[in-house]
Amino acid sequence: MKITSYYTENENDVKYIFSLMHKLYKLGKRIYLKTNNVVEQEVLSELFWKFRTFLPHGTTEDQYQELQPVLVSGMEFEDYIAEKPKAAESNKDCNQEHQAFSTLIIYRHPNQYTESMINKVSGKDISGSLSEVIFWNPDQHKNRMMLVGKVWIQQGINWVELKKAD
């Protein structure tokens, strides 16, 4: 599983996360964006509709969430996957099959949560067909993150990969 971390000190990091998700969407990835809570989920979803570039997305509050290529959620990924059969059952009238998530993005979470997710990802405790986990602006976790994947830091308008020390 590919693990990547992105750090930006830019106050308006929403446009950068949107750009990253749009690129992943164009590559055919199905994305689960894990937010801290339902309020942040709704704020991000609303902001994503305001960009010039269209990114089809929804939230866990939407009726046909299992068909969304990008799902913004305050719900734990594992809990959502466990609830998936119930969601599919409630939408029997929809005859399209859903695609499994390939990318999990964890957006601005505190150290304890990030540490827990690193352990789950490293220990392969995350279910499903995930091929990639992205940590977006985790709280000052640079040293630990370097041990488990690539780390990118924004410098001005450029992204620079931090190289691991040998």
From TrEMBL:
Gene3D superfamilies associated with the record: DNA polymerase III subunit chi
- Cross-referenced InterPro entries: DNA_pol3_chi, PolIII_chi_sf
Biological process (GO) annotations? DNA replication
Per the record, the domain of life is: Bacteria
Q: Which GO terms describe its molecular function?
A: DNA binding; DNA-directed DNA polymerase activity
> What is this protein's record name?
DNA polymerase III subunit chi
Q: Which organism is it from?
A: Candidatus Nesciobacter abundans
